Amino acid sequence: MKEFWQSCIQALAQELPPEQMKAWVLPLAPLGFDEELGELRISAPTPIKQNWAKTNYTARIQELASQWFNRPDVKVMFQLVRANQVPPAMSGATAAVALASAPVAPVQAAPVTGTQPFGTSPEVIIESAAPNVPATASFGNTESEDFIYKRSHINPNLTFESLVVGRSNQLANAASAQIVDKPGVSAYNPFFIYGSTGLGKTHLMHAIGNALIKAGKVNRVRYIHADQYYSDLVKSFRTSTFDEFKRYYHSLDLLLIDDIQFFRKKDRTQEEFFYLYETMVAQNKQIIITSDTYPRELQDISNRLTSRFDSGLTVHIEPPELEMRVAILLRKAEEKPGIILKEEAAFFIAKHLRSNVRELEGALSKVSAYAGFHGLKTFTVEVCKEALKDLLSVSNGQITVENIQKTVADFYKIKVQEMYSKRRPANIAMPRQIAMYLAKELTQKSLPEIGDLFGGRDHTTVLHAVRKITEARVKNAELNHQLHVLEQTLKG
To answer: Where is the AAA+ ATPase domain (predicted)?
Structure first.
């Protein structure tokens, strides 16, 4: 079993991004294989990891197991087995045998409530540098929820209940639930969320803050934009209140900092944040960070910071797929009193506007204003067409994945059909990966949508192609030139 599982891990590591491996695959462990029934039993330490593995990895592990055990009828069973059921001294095959005979805990929903804060003991915080916090604010366990909210800058309306979940943010949402369950755990600290603007990173951050406050697990909370943190620091120097500034931030149970890329070229700010980071993580206090790019790709940010950002859990939020865009529009329309958005109208808007949630909200507001001016209560396709004709004229000029596939196929002298085929010779695989890369760079399609347009491939395949071409472009001057020619051709 040990050899099989090592082989399985190696295969999955070639197909999945490192953050997925670390968060969802490595916590799994083999329990045993029943030769008679053909059942492979695998343990998961939490209900969320169990459900995620069952949904996303069953088919691939079953395929690998069938090859390894040389039988086509292998069934994969995921079971919830708490980590503390295995004696610490046991590992590898020994642990697998012990777990196989251990009683399996019943599956329960991951808890999101609790009473014990994970921060340090209550203390008085002298605050004069951070805005809107009185000089003698006490953040003890007995403080009211209203008091915590007032000092936290958390938006109480941005909750998990108001968040629309789809394939593009499913991983980030599941990881967030784990953090609400056990904040400050090293594997999820820091929690680094990255993606383009308007995709819901800030919403998810506030949702975590709201859930932890409601659960009574945090008392000293602060949401802040990176630019505001810089301003607070500058103000503390100007007013000779740096000690108070430092004491306030170092006393937090939960820090949510948005758009960390705004720290670029601010060396002193980066230095102070590094010391803050080290203090909070050492005390198991949760840090959540958002950015527009992957930690290692942040420019003008010190290496010691980016390496620490990458040491916890890093997840990517993609542009929402079509079904998710429709769901978002319908949810937003429900929140606007007195209007009715027809589902076909929501589908029409979602089909033409692909980039982000903020764009969808803007389009809905524009339709709402148009309908209000004309005394209309129901938003039909015709109303949306008229209200959004300016936006749609721009959208119709967008580069399509189909156009990219044809252009790349012509350039490398292969058939367009090879873009969808399962064949993998080098003369076909490389152009196909280049087309996937250009589709990600030049269109607003999400990774799952791009994968669907390349023969129903998984989004992890597209992500692998994007990363491979991104890295190769930097090292290979000829490839970089070819990509430049293709980009200019597609842009007309």
So the answer is: 187-321
Known binding residue 202? Answer is yes
Q: Burial letters for 198-226: b for 16+ Cβ neighbours within 10 Å, e otherwise?
A: bbbbbbbbbbbbbbbbebebbbbbbbbbb
Q: Which fold has domain 142-316?
A: Rossmann fold (3.40.50)
Q: Is 198 annotated as a binding residue?
A: yes
User: Residue 69 burial by CB count (10 A; 0-12/13-18/19+): exposed, middle or buried?
Assistant: middle
Positive or negative, the CA dihedral 64, 68, 74, 79 is: negative
Q: What is the CATH number of domain 411-491?
A: 1.10.1750.10
- Global model pTM greater than 0.85: no
CATH 3.55.40.10 fits 322-395, yes or no: no
74: exposed, middle or buried (C-beta count within 10 Å: 0-12, 13-18, 19+)? Answer: buried
**Is 201 a known ligand-binding residue?**
yes
DSSP state of 295: G
Residue pLDDT, tens place only, 180-234: 988 988 788 999 999 877 888 999 999 999 999 988 898 899 999 999 999 999 9
Domain with CATH 1.10.8.60 in the chain: 322-395
pLDDT by residue (tens digit) across 155-184?
Answer: 988 999 888 888 788 889 889 988 998 898
Say how far apart CA 377 and CA 145 lie, in whole Å: 39
Pair 226, 262: CB distance under 8 Å: yes
Q: How far apart are CA 143 and CA 373, in angstroms?
A: 47
Q: Answer yes or no: is 372 a known binding residue.
A: no
Q: What percent of the chain has pLDDT over 90?
A: 28
